[in-house]
Design a protein that fits this description.
Blueprint: H1 10-15, H2 17-20, E1 28-31, H3 34-37, H4 45-62, E2 67-72, H5 78-82, H6 87-101, E3 104-107, H7 109-118, H8 120-126, H9 135-150, H10 164-174, E4 182-184, H11 185-199, E5 206-207, H12 215-221, E6 229-230, H13 231-245, E7 252-254
Parallel strand pairs: 1-2, 2-3
Antiparallel strand pairs: 4-7, 5-6
Length: about 260
C-alpha cells in the first residue's frame, strides 16, 4: 500500500497518519520524509526527528509487532539541491534513529552518491530533474538494495512502465506556451531555461559553482571547462532526452512518448 504523497513532509505524515497508515494495520512500514523535511527552513533536524518518532510510536502503540523500516534516498542536484543544502544531516538523523531503536535501515544514499560522483551522466539519466528517480534508476539502484536488505527473491518490477518523474515534467512543460496535452521542442527548451533561471541566483545568465549543487555534476555541465555553466551548455545536456522521446522526429511529444525515455 502506497500511503505517501509527493512533496509531503513529516508534518503532513503526522496529520494523516491515522487514516493513511494506522487504519491499514500494517505488518511493516517503510518511512522516509528526510528529503522534503530538509527543504529550506521548513523545520530543523530535531523537529523532523520528533515528527518521525512520533509517527513510529503511534503505530507501535496499536501494532507492536509491526516492523519499522527507515530509508534514506538520493542526493538532490540542480535547483532541488540548492533548496536542500543540509539534506545529508537529515539522512544522518534517520541512521541515528535506526541505530538507537534497532530498526532496519535501507540506506540508498551511499549508492546514489557513488553514481553521482563517478558518473554524473548516469545519475542524470536515472534522475533527470535532479531529485526524482525514474524507473531505470529505481531498478538499478533502489531495488537491489531493498531486495538484499529484506532477503527477497528476484522479481519482475520492470513490468511497471510508469515514468512519474517525466510525467510531472511533461505537465509543467505543457503549460509553458499552450496547454494542449503536447510538448513542443520550444516548450521543452523553455522549461529547462526556467529551471536554469531558478538556479541563476545572481541573474548573470550563467551558473557559478555555488549556484549548482554537486561539483561532479557542475563539471559535467561545464563542457568548455571555463568554471561557469552557460544556458547553452545546460540546454545541451537535456537535448538528447527530447530526441529520445521524439521517435517520429516531428519535434512534438505526446504523453505516450514518455515510455521511450
Amino acid at each position: 500500500i502506497n500511503s505517501g504523497k509527493g512533496g509531503s513532509t513529516s508534518v503532513w505524515g503526522g496529520d494523516n497518519f491515522d487514516n493513511k497508515v494506522i487504519s491499514k494495520k500494517p505488518d511493516a512500514m517503510f518511512i522516509e520524509f528526510a528529503i522534503n523535511d530538509s527543504v529550506g527552513q521548513r523545520m530543523t533536524v530535531a523537529k523532523s526527528r520528533g515528527n518521525l518518532e512520533g509517527m513510529i510510536d503511534r503505530l507501535l502503540a496499536v501494532q507492536p509487532k509491526c516492523e519499522i523500516i527507515l530509508m534514506t534516498m538520493n542526493p538532490a542536484v540542480d535547483i532541488h539541491g540548492l533548496r536542500r543544502p543540509n539534506v545529508a544531516a537529515y539522512y544522518q538523523m534517520y541512521r541515528d534513529v535506526a541505530k538507537d531503536r534497532d530498526f532496519l535501515l535501507i540506506d540508498h544514499y551511499p549508492n546514489w552518491k557513488k553514481v553521482l560522483d563517478e558518473d554524473p551522466a548516469r545519475f542524470l539519466r536515472y534522475s533527470p530533474d535532479g531529485i526524482h528517480p525514474v524507473r531505470e534508476g529505481t531498478l538499478e539502484v533502489v531495488m537491489p538494495e531493498i531486495q538484499a536488505a529484506l532477503g527477497l527473491q528476484e522479481c519482475k518490477p520492470e513490468v511497471n512502465r510508469s515514468v512519474k518523474c517525466w510525467e510531472y515534467m511533461f505537465k509543467a512543460m505543457d503549460n509553458m506556451i499552450e496547454k494542449d496535452k503536447k510538448v513542443t521542442l520550444k516548450e521543452y527548451q523553455k522549461f529547462w531555461k526556467s529551471q536554469f533561471g531558478k538556479c541563476d541566483q545572481n541573474k548573470d545568465r550563467s551558473l557559478q559553482p555555488d549556484e549548482y549543487v554537486s561539483k561532479p555534476m557542475f563539471q559535467y555541465f561545464d563542457a568548455n571547462k571555463d568554471s561557469v555553466i552557460s544556458l547553452e551548455e545546460y540546454q545541451a545536456v537535456y537535448a538528447p532526452y527530447f530526441k529520445r522521446g521524439d521517435l517520429d522526429g516531428d519535434n512534438v511529444w505526446v504523453f505516450a512518448d514518455l515510455e521511450n525515455l
